[in-house]
Design goal:
about 800 residues, mainly alpha, transmembrane
Amino acid sequence: MANFEAYQEYQRIEDIEEDSPPGEEDLLVHVPEGLKDSWHHIKNLDNFFTRIYHFHQKNGFACMMLSEFFELVQFLFVVTFTTFLVNCVEYDVLFANRAVNHTGPGQNPLDRNKVTLPDAILPSQQCTERIQENSWIIFLLIMAAIFWIYRLVKVFCNVLSYWEIRQFYIKALKIRMDELCNFTWQEVQDRLISLQREQQMCIHKKELTELDIYHRILRFKNYMVAMINKSLLPVQLQLPLLGNVVFLTQGLKYNFELILFWGPGSLFQNKWNLHPKYKRNGNRLELAQQLSRVILLMGLANLLLCPFILVWQVLYAFFSYTEIIRREPGNLGARRWSLYGRLYLRHFNELDHELHGRLGRGYKPTTKYMNSFTSPLLTVLAKNIAFFSGSVLAVLIALTVYDEDVLTVQHILTAITVLGVVITIARSFIPDEHMVWCPEQLLQCMLAHIHYMPDHWRGSANKSETRDEVAQLFQYKAVFILEELLSPIVTPFILIFHLRNKSLEIIDFFRNFTVEVVGVGDICSFAQMDIRRHGNPTWMSEGQTEASVYQQAENGKTELSLMHFTIKNPHWQPPQESSVFISHLKEKVQHDAQGGPSPQLLLSEAPLCTSLQSNESATGPDNLLASVLAHPILTASGLQGRDHHFIPPSTAASAAASVLASLSTSQLAHTGRSRAQGLLPSSVHPESTMYRSDRTIIDSMSNSDSRIRSNALHSEFASAEMSLHAIYMHELHQQSSHPQRTSGQWQSAVPMRDLHTNTGFQAHGGLGSSMSMPTTVHLGGWQEEEEEENEDDQEINSGSTPKQGTRSSC
């Protein structure tokens, strides 16, 4: 296993280069002398920048403190209310198992046996006696009280700390609290960088870069992303009957971070420096044994606390989800990005709000892809269950309408509620008969936003194995709740029997993939996005990387992360190796764009793109991306453009290259304009229909509103630009990995090293003689069917998978 102790660029910093003296790591030094209201030599910049980021994302001091206050109240309510329900309610009276006789001079004889709510509640004295007699309840209440006091102290410390951050925003960054929501994080970050030039917040560097700030905020998260990328953490388990199962919950993730980063016996001696002994190769076996013991102790501690954590998880889930399940049972069938999916799909140096926005844009196409899979057998069962349950429910409702006294019959109301839930759940398994099933197109739309996809998904979008792997990233909410409930039980066994076995690999990982950067401290080397050290030759890094298989990031993580960070931070100056990669990528885009469709054709000629532009709710970035994704199908279908000429066949890679080349040309031609305007294709006139409404609105707004709208457009165009890069780079990766596939789907590959010599390059085989014409398909994956009088005789086109209902396949 390779050893990377000697990095030429990154010299080890001695102990005298630490940001903070021992014992002063958590201090924020405010120096009023000399320059009033100035901040110099801030101790623990990790904590400081992280709090600045959270302060911005959580909308300021008032919102943050109110949220923490209600968290305390919520915990207190759950403990108090649960204790009351267990000890102070007479359930025999509440369920009418025991008669209650009300006697009194003014009591109506008809109401003597009527049970009221106070009848089922014990007197306070009797309730207190019950609690005092139960030693188990007293022990749990003491444990809860200790935890609540700990949380109270933590909230008090947060109030003091975030009040200081509030003062920093107002006095140093010149941002008032009522204007905070109008500033993007990039604007706050720019002010931080400018402030560093005036006041030395970090004394080891004269100027801070965007990457320095990201490294400070995401130091440990970058390590987690790298360990998931290298399959180091034991989150994939082989279980009997279930096969390969991914299990990663909040509790398990918390234990990983506690063991590795900031808990007792962790690998880091403070929040920015790995302990020196883990940087040396000599005692790796001894350190692995030591880490194994720490993991064992942590696993045993989790096993000891399992009953308490499990009780809390069950109570919290009950109070949180019971009313939602009763009101909208279909919510359990909704999907969410799993915690494993968020780490797997996350770029290096991607902040939380950037990840949330990107996955949010990918939610709908991923949902459509997952909903395209149905089981015919399950559909038949669901239809019959819905029929029988609906029949019984209809009768009960009719009887209730006829005579409301039916509701007084025991369990009638329960039966109505349960039948309603069963019908809702059953109908969620019945597919829409009018939905067109086009898995490859849906998978391509999904890739445009999530940016990562294993190679074997390509061409296998209609297989159940691919669907199961996507489900590991995009899980049911019901599965999420179940995993969180099982987490206190499963976590100790994963720590003891799986994580311990990887102790040596973890020690080697942190030694080999940790570099120390002046003014930042120890960071994960993958977070440097260094193409030479961690690039993959099949991801356009051929001839530029020296990385072995062990050193390479998987799935093009280094290359895609570099492009994402460059697009999100346009003022950042990348290192030389990264600049060379970006320059070569731009050159290849220009070469591929020469033979690709023109942006005018993408935005105007294609019929589907024209229909998208007629949608007033669609934005420019959405139209750009939709045009690129739809163009290969439109060209393969042999459709005519507006000028009645056939559109030549092309691929998604050539279409993406054409738009990206246009974006690059537009940015060079509009250097004096805003980023949102600079991203307009050069072939599209700024006053075209697609953008006229935005410009008119911007001109009529105030300066503040115009800046907000401009920032929104910049964010949308940057996201669309990254989506186009993701599509383009995946296509080129497939060409490099599978050069034999040159018909229909991919263009012929041109190595990066041949860009300067191959001047006669054809962008795709559709313009040459070696490319075979693809099979004609229906427009954009949408297919209309004529309704037949006898639907029972209609054939079901199952395609290549049995997991298909009555819907059509494109």
